[in-house]
Amino acid sequence: MREIIMAFFLGVAFTNSLLMGEESLKAGGEAWILELIVFPLFALIGIGALLLEHRRRASTESRRPNSPDTDQQPEQPR
Question: Is the pTM of this model over 0.90?
C-alpha cells in the first residue's frame, strides 16, 4: 500500500512541476530550470527507485519454496 501512495504522490509532483515550470517559462520567471528540469528529474528517480524496490521484493518472494506465486505444490505431511 505504501508503494501505491508514494507512486501517486511522486506522479502528482512530477506533473505539477512540469506544469508550473512551463508556466514559469512563459512568464519569464527565474526558477523555471528548477521546476521544469530538476524537480521532475527527482520525481522520476523516486518512481524508478520504487519500481526497483518492488521488483527486488517480488523476485525474492517468488524464490521462496512455498510462495503462492510459484507453480509448486506445498509439501504435504506424511
Answer: no
